[in-house]
Design a protein that fits this description.
Chain lengths: 498, 119
Amino acid sequence: MSWLLALPIAIPFLTAVATFLARDIPAGRWLSVIGSGILLIAAIVLMNAVLSEGVIAGQMGGWAAPFGITLVADLLSAVMVLITAIVSVAVSIYALADVDEKMERLGYHALFSMLIAGVVGAFVTGDLFNLYVWFEVMLIASFGLLVLGGRPEQIDGGVKYVALNLVSTIMFLTGIGLLYGMTGTLNMADLATAVDNADQQLLTVVAVLFMIAFGVKAAVFPLFFWLPASYHTPAFSVSAVFAGLLTKVGVYALLRMFTLVFDNDTAFTHTILLWVAGFTMVVGVLGAAAQSDMRKILSFHIVSQIGYMILGLALLTPLAIVGAVFYLVHHIVVKANLFLIAGVAQRIAGGTELSRIGGLYKSAPFLAILFVVPAFSLAGFPPLSGFWAKFLLVKATLEIEAWFIAFIALAVGLLTIYSMTKIWAQAFWEPHPDGVEPKLSKLSAHDRNAFLIPIAGLAILTVIIGTMPEPFVHFAERSAAQLLDPTAYITAVLGEQP
Amino acid sequence: MEILFAITIGVLVACSVYLMLANHLLRFIFGLVLISNAANLTIFVAGRLTDGAPPLIPVGADAPAIAANALPQALVLTAIVIGFGLFAFAIVLVFRAWTSLNSLTPDEMRLAEPEEAHK
């Protein structure tokens, strides 16, 4: 079964090589779409296998766990790989129109596939040091994508992004070193039991080190400043895939480590996480309210939404984890889509600065409808996917009578509506200040299709999750049960425990 | 021996934090190089220091009382290689920042996030 686990990593790697070799050929860009398509098929097969057989684990290189490198997929990993593949397909189609030939020659598609490989690798690895390596693969590809094109704003944003992410990387590495020194293992399933024998106080210190390292990646308060400094500078397809996937890898790592390994002192660690979650939600949404550029508003909303996912993890009740998993999946689809729509708005209306654009509702009603779906899903309107995600989390807070954090979650939802209506009013409703009519027909048929097909696809997915939430909630419940009781995970990796 | 390593790591981290807090990108990069070496040393020490013990034991031979742990060295080697790539990129990026922004002072780099115009 281990080839099933290795395929989603191998496919984007091969795609990266192929697209790099074909970077000067115009047809080369289709390789990226084809590669993403094959990845999607592999992800679906993996998902099927995990659904029918439970947790799948494979040892790479033939060394038995905990000595070899373990790849392992439980429901959470499988769904993250699947959603990564979906975003990858959407963005690679979108890039057909968004990415110009100059960027292609510089290797945009190869970097993009490399980024996807890193993200998928981080989701399926069962080894802590291997997780570090995948983080680095992802990071170096994202560095390249961020500054590709070399406009001064990109360099400026890039410096801050690179600096803070490198610091987080070193924190992560130090944490790995200390954890290894304490337990003598780096296999995540093995660590789950090995930490019980370690010095518990020292373990809490190491847990906080990991919390900071992953917190920077996940862009939580007060470690998120690199995100709004950089996410609005690169090409739109790049910021869409960043917005959808990168911070979520940090959230995934937190979710994995703080349910599997660092669950010894939850009164301490998860209380910190709860405060962090509250501040992240509030600061993110207030930051968004102060912005007037579409992409900057959306960037701050990533931060605020991350808070909800951390809230689910911090509460650590079954329902809260269900909410966090549901939120994670819903958010990736919605957020990537909003950045893709911002790209179209920029192309036809001439910018993303809200005061300089307008008239999109009158001239491009189809785009307006497509914007409404993810925007109001983000804000949590029923019957869209965001409503159920917020509903689950708020219900989880009410269940344990955490009134204050429930109030914050609801208030932040309201402020999210404020930001979304601001974009709606200024970019869509008000007439364009220069009297331009931002029609979709301005785009060539090729560009129009490449832009609108992925946007429509992701919007339909949002509506499907929203109108038929039952199978998705049920799935999130199963996934949360696996996270909270990692016996199946540990058995799959290490075999039957005595 | 561990004490010596611990002190070295502590001094490295202290120096690098001082450098990274300076308002200058080049110093920040130097600080980053130092702190990444501190992290590598941490992994090395965490794998236990063994003096003159063999890391590999021939097939069939009796295991000696003390054997060297080769894994931390493999980890450190990986981390060094990755770190080398990252720093190469970071240094080129800082050079690009110098040529296109004409500044290496983070406080002055406000192109992506312009200051609010005072009204």
